[in-house]
Specification:
- The structure is a single chain.
- This protein is α+β, with helices and mostly antiparallel strands.
Length: 77
C-alpha cells in the first residue's frame, strides 16, 4: 500500500470515501476505509458507476447522500 495511506488511521475528522462500483481504483478506497477509525466515516460505493461518472454524470453522483454526510458531520454554524 502506498505511504500516502499509512496514516489514515490517525484521521479524526469526518471522512467520506466515494467510489464507483466499476472504478479501477475502488480497492484503494476500500482498503483505506478499513484503516480509518471512529464513527464519523462512510464508504459509499455507487452502483454501476465508473470513476469518470462521479466527475460529471449528475445521474450517478449521489448528491443527497453527500449532503446528508456533510449535514451530519460538518453542519453549518
Amino acid at each position: 500500500m502506498s505511504r500516502f495511506f499509512e496514516y489514515a488511521g490517525e484521521l479524526e475528522n469526518a471522512v467520506m470515501i466515494l467510489h464507483g462500483e466499476k472504478a479501477h481504483s475502488r480497492y484503494f478506497g476500500e482498503d483505506t476505509f478499513k484503516l480509518l477509525c471512529g464513527d464519523n466515516k462512510e464508504l459509499l460505493i455507487v452502483d454501476g458507476a465508473s470513476h469518470c461518472d462521479l466527475y460529471d454524470n449528475l445521474d450517478k453522483i449521489p448528491m443527497d447522500r453527500i449532503a446528508q454526510f456533510f449535514s451530519k458531520w460538518m453542519p453549518a454554524e
